[in-house]
Amino acid sequence: MGMREWWRNRRAEKTSNTLILPETEHVDDRALVTGSVDAARTDVTSGAYDLHMFSDENFAEMPYEQVVDDQLALTRIRLFKIARTTVLRHTQRLNRAQAHVDKLTARHDGVLRQIALKTEKLNEQLEILNGTRTGRAGLNWPGTPPNQTTLTSAYFRLLAPYAVFFVVGCVDLGVIFKSFQELFPSTFEAVLFTIPAVGVQIVFPHFIGDRINLLIHKSRHRLTLALELVVLFGVWLTFVGALAAIRMNFVLTFNSLNDAMYYATYAGFICMMLGLGLWLLLVAARHNPHEAAYARLDYAIGMLARSAEKVRQKIVIAKAGMPTLQAARDAADQGYRDTIESTESEMSELAKSVYRRSLVNLSRDVDFTSAYLTVTQTGAKERKDARNARPA
To answer: Are 175 and 248 in contact (CB under 8 A)?
Structure first.
């Protein structure tokens, strides 16, 4: 049948690998017209219908017209399923985009909260440096907030104290290891003695300088700090003297020195070891922990601000694509609605109108034409009124 051919063509369009957008879909009107004409010719030539069935037997419509309604109703159902799938895909894309925006927004809010917390701590450090608030150990630590113009300068400022420890540590490591290597035949034993020795040479001067710093800032525990200084100084000076003696004994093994040269070399080695330690001691004694804390917080805020700006730009880019996705979803939804409505109304009326005209022309009976068209026109008017009354 012509209608079946149209339906097969319709299915072929629907089962293609690429889903056709609803606004570009169309029904082959020529195939629909041809199928209706062929159906009318088949019904007339079959002799299966009484020409007086509309006037005497009160028929409402020909069987083909019911077939048209049934097949287009099935087409409408299938279109609805495809529409639901298409709109769902657009909705999923839209939801994924919205979820991405929400995730970025949450990350941005989290970064802003961290900035707020660190800014609060930065203000506390500023109050301490301005002398309006006490700091470490309940003491006053007046100072100047570091002026960090760029993140790079702030980074190197924070790195400087660690660089001092690294340089002094490497020099001490070399000197002490060489001294123990000359004392012990095994390199492993020399390493075992070098590690704690380097710790003493680096940590003790730092502890001494830190306690001097607290005394300078008028700590209430002066007696305790003074006793700690005596102990730390005693241990450190004993260590330096012992290491110098080990070194000099090794030197005397291979060289014959007069008294003046011996004492000069001895004093020079002690001054070298003390000089490295005093460098760390002075750094610790002049160190303001709240200036360092201010610098770290300022640097952290700068890094967080940079991160917040990057996330904000990502949010702007992600939101820029949202209207396009929403418009695509709305267009797909409305396009399928229009296609389904046209399938239900216009296509049905087109197929039936062509069929009726062909049927009355091929039957060539005035009475049949009058009875048939009167019934079908009345039914078409009722269906049109029902569609107009249907809510949007």
So the answer is: no
Dist CA 145 CA 56 (whole Å): 108
Q: With respect to residue 169, please indicate whether it lies within any of the assigned structural domains.
A: yes
Cα 31 to chain center, whole Å? 52
375 in a structural domain: yes
Please state, for a pLDDT cut of 70, what percent of the chain lies above it. Answer: 81
Asked whether residue 194 falls in the same domain as residue 283, the answer is: yes
d(CA 65, CA 36): 9
In whole angstroms, give the CA distance from residue 236 to residue 319: 64
Identify whether residues 150 and 206 lie together within a single domain.
Answer: yes
Q: How far apart are the C-alpha atoms of 375 and 383, rounded to whole Å? A: 12
| pLDDT tens-digit readout, 307-332 | 999 999 999 998 888 888 888 888 87
The pLDDT, as a whole number, for residue 341 is 66
Q: Of 245, 240, 250, nearest to 208 (Cα)?
A: 240
**Length, in residues, of the chain:** 392
Q: What is the pTM of this model?
A: 0.61
Closest CA to 141 of 293, 298, 283: 293
Q: How far, rounded to the nearest angstrom, does the alpha carbon of residue 68 sit from its chain's CA centroid?
A: 53
Question: Which of 132, 122, 168, 180 lies closest to 301, judged by CA?
Answer: 122
Q: Which helix (H) or strand (E) holds 187?
A: helix 187-216
Nearest to 367 by CA among 56, 57, 52, 61: 52
Q: 241, 242, 248, 247: which is closest to 178 by C-alpha? A: 247
φ and ψ of 50, to 5 deg: -85, 130
Q: Which domain holds residue 98?
A: 2-14+25-110+321-389
**Taking Cα atoms as reference points, which of 374, 366, 358, 361 lies closest to residue 39?**
358
**Total domain count for the chain?**
2
